[in-house]
Amino acid sequence: MNVRKKKDRIARAKKIVAYLKRTYPEPKSELQYKTPFQFLVAVVLSAQCTDKKVNQCTAELFKKYRTTKDFARADIKKFSKEISSLTFYNNKAKNIIEAAKQIENEYASTLPRTAKELQQLPGIGYKTAHVILGELYGIYEGIATDTHVKRFSKRFDLTDQEELEKISKDLEQIISKKDWRYVNNGFVLYGRYICIARPHDCSEHPLTKIYPKASNNWPKTR
Fold it and tell me: What's the rounded Cα separation, in Å, for the pair 109 and 37?
């Protein structure tokens, strides 16, 4: 990235994040949960799936499974069936149960508080680890990039990358660390309730006004 391009992106990102910060001042996931491990489960289940569908599934699931121990003792076939309304349920079931067992054995039932440790768990990547740290512990050591963050990062020309973790690293270079907490949650809510993924006239949307070229930029993000 040349110096001029980086300066432009820094300036643009600053305006975008300022809007997100004003509009969504308290980062909070819309996934429903009551225990820390339930949140980890919900985040894993949300991969390639909407929060609404996950919440519909976990409304009953979380009455049965509350603690890490509950998930660690789950029968894989039965658990898979219980989450079969969601995408990739077999792999998700396996990863959730194995992650629960690992936390039981290595961390005395308590979720780790570092991204490095969380990423050692099955099914937990860079994005998931940082979503968990932010939501549960208020720790923002990185920017979590999901499909919403990816598409807006591309639409507003904040990155040239395609891989989620590489996009995170680009954003972390152009956004002040004190504002990292507002990026994922802000883009998710903005994309969910203001500027949906399907191409439409968004010329009057707040962030498009910051970068008008975005109104004609609809990259595929999957």
Answer: 9
This prediction has a pTM of 0.92
d(CA 120, CA 10): 32
Domain of 102, CATH number, reads 1.10.340.30
**Rounded alpha-carbon distances, angstroms, from residue 51 to 56, 75, 82, 130:** 9, 24, 17, 17
Number of domains present in the structure of the chain: 1
The boundaries of the domain holding residue 35 are 1-222
Q: Answer yes or no: is pLDDT of 38 > 90.
A: yes
**Looking at residue 2, what is its pLDDT?**
83
